[in-house]
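Cross-check.
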Amino acid sequence: MKLEPLKIGDLIAKVPIIQGGMGIGISLHQLAGAVAKEGGIGILSVAQIGYQKEKFEKSPLRTNLETIGEQFKKAKAIAKDGIVGFNVMVAQFHYEKYIQKCVEAGADVIISGAGLPVDLPGLVENSKTKIAPIVSSAKAAKVLLKTWAKRYNRTADFIVIEGPLAGGHLGFKKDQIDTAIKTMDDEIKNIIEVVKQYSETFNVTIPVIFAGGVFTREDIDYYLSLGCSGVQMATRFVGTIECDAPDEFKQKYLNAKEDDIQITKSPVGLPGRAIVNNFTERIKHEDVPIKRCLSCLSYKHCDRKTIPYCISEALLNSVQGNADNGLVFAGSNAYRVNEITTVKAIFDEINQ
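Predicted model, tokenized:
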């Protein structure tokens, strides 16, 4: 049975799958465009989005901001009439400028996490761009939606719940992860109840999307049965021809065993899930000297004097030919990626 479309205001995704934003350089125009073309929602990660350009080293911020529109245009060319948007971390240095550039580019949607995006509505005002916060608890959803209602007299266009099995940075403390895995279903239901209150207050439908550990059609059906309107998938799309990651990065997924996917420390104060390699072993015992600050995170989220390593440098290494000595973020199911396929094949398999 085919999945029901995902409706976000006047946007309609034929398949209720959002491709999660993956940075640095994992979900750019090729992947986002291909997912949108198949009826899902393709998401570009703005994290160091201009890293492949020559002038990036000299002027990372300016290069990144210039690249946003270029990447979006390329993704849209692939997507045709499909839905394409951006993932922007609240912790991003010059967060406001990144959001404004995404809006100027014509983003259909913006998904924002790694902190609560309390100012996001004001930054997209008078645009058609739909916005969604990423939350991991009913408490966070309640605080954010209450703030948006009071400050901007509006609510979210949709909500993304990120669970504890996701890749990259997690919205849980390390000692909370095991408990969160056991209680996530109840938390999803609690978040949906919070969202319903604001749906009624503003007389709108607010779809709830679940992310983290979603890999198969059975997974999707399960979260739909809990009351979600769709899912976000990221890890599975790494194993596609269209994924923007280099072959060496993809090979790390293909070679990974279940025990190779572990929680590691991150300089941003959150635990992260990654594939074990030389780098993750090294940072257990020592700090890695920072060669040069690329101003990726705000000073509030990154104390350059005390961080154990540079997150940008670690992620850039993994996409620039040095994956053994870089950070290879991955979801808990990365070990199940055992072949390089196509985005179309994944959608065909899931949406039968």
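The CA atoms of residues 32 and 42 lie 4 Å apart. The mean pLDDT is 94. Passed to J.P. for a second look.
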